[in-house]
Amino acid sequence: MKTKINYFAIINFYIIAIGLRYLTNKTNLLENVNSDFIKVILQAAGPAIGAVVAFSIFKIKPKLSLKGNYKNGITPFLLYWIFPITLILAVEYFTKGTFSFTAISAILIYGLLEEIGWRGFLQQELKSLPKIVNVLIVAVLWFIWHLNFELTSGNIIFFGILVLASWGIGKVADSTQSLLAVSAFHSLNNFFPEMNSTKIIILVVLIATWVITLIIRKRRMKAINN
């Protein structure tokens, strides 16, 4: 088990992550970028770039990958990306007659780029800390990264959501070691910024399917190991 935390790597990661976040969200850097898809991707790139730089400079081996501990990469890709894309787009088409494939894909990629940093690097680097401390540090740094410091009830609720997400997505990361899986869970909130009965049903179906799959998979792996 990892016992030594590389604080220099964490500082390096976070300076890059929050620096790029500031440039893409609080300046006119992306003013001339016409593609909303590219803008969304660039706004989430900071944690991923910071993690890659930290991995490279400090010779840290990533613990998470796209495939994770699945036997192949097709399974998590179908379960965590193709399934939500298909479900959400199908419901959208039959209820509204629209087809927002680019937007849904951008949300998943956005979540993936963030998760390369938060779960793929930071959570793993803080692994030796007590679980609650790990979760709180990740949640605080994740909250600050959003650069929204207004003392409002909405922000307090948002911080609470990030604490729960840091715990929950962290559990998914430990179980699957798959960036595809954690990015899908991460993207749930971004899929549905405003809720209605249809979206609630989709959300419940996605979460129930993923959680049940994880439980069954965990039991099978436990049975094999025994």
UniProtKB/TrEMBL annotation:
Pfam families: Rce1-like (PF02517). Residues 100-192 form the CAAX prenyl protease 2/Lysostaphin resistance protein A-like domain. Keywords: Hydrolase, Membrane, Protease, Transmembrane, Transmembrane helix. One of its GO terms (biological process) is CAAX-box protein maturation. It comes from the Bacteria. The chain crosses the membrane at residues 7-25, 37-58, 70-91, 97-116, 128-145, 151-169, 198-216. GO terms for molecular function: endopeptidase activity. This is CAAX prenyl protease-like protein.
